[in-house]
Amino acid sequence: MVLFLHHAQGLSFTLARTVWTRNGLAPAEFDVLATLRNAPAPHELTPTQLQDSLLITSGGLTKVMLQLETRNLVIRSRHQTDQRVKPIKLTPAGKRLVEKAMRELAATSSAWVRGILEANEISLLTGMLRKLAGSDTRQ
Fold first, then answer.
1. Tens digits of residue pLDDT in 76-107
2. Domain architecture of the chain: domains with CATH
3. For site-directed labelling of 32, which of 40, 49, 73, 131 has its Cα 20 to 30 A away?
4. CA triple 105-110-114, angle to 5 deg
C-alpha cells in the first residue's frame, strides 16, 4: 500500500511540475508563494514563519527569496518593532501568478483523478486518506 501511495504521489508531483514549469516556477518557489498566498491578508510572513511551514533550509529559503524578489513576486520590508526582522510579502504580481498556477494545478489534478476513478471511488479514497492523515503515528 505504501509503495502505491508513494507512486501516486510521484505521478501527482510530475503533473504539478508541468504546471509550475509552464508558469515559470520551481517547486520551492511555488511552495513559498502558495504559503504566502494562504497566509491572512496582507499575505506576509517572517522568514522563520515561512521556514516553519516548508521543508527548506534557511540557506535554501534565502536563495528562493532572492529569486522571487528579483522577479518582483515578493518584497521584504522592515518589521515595525524589530528592525532585525524582514517580513516577506506577496506582491500583486506574485499573487496573480500563484493564484493562476494554483487554479491550473487544481484543474490538472482533478482531471487526472477523475480520469481514473469514479465519483464513489474518489469519495471513498478521500475518506480513507483523511483518516490516515489524521492518525497519530506515535504508538
1. 876 666 666 688 999 999 999 999 999 999 99
2. 23-104 (1.10.10.10)
3. 131
4. 155
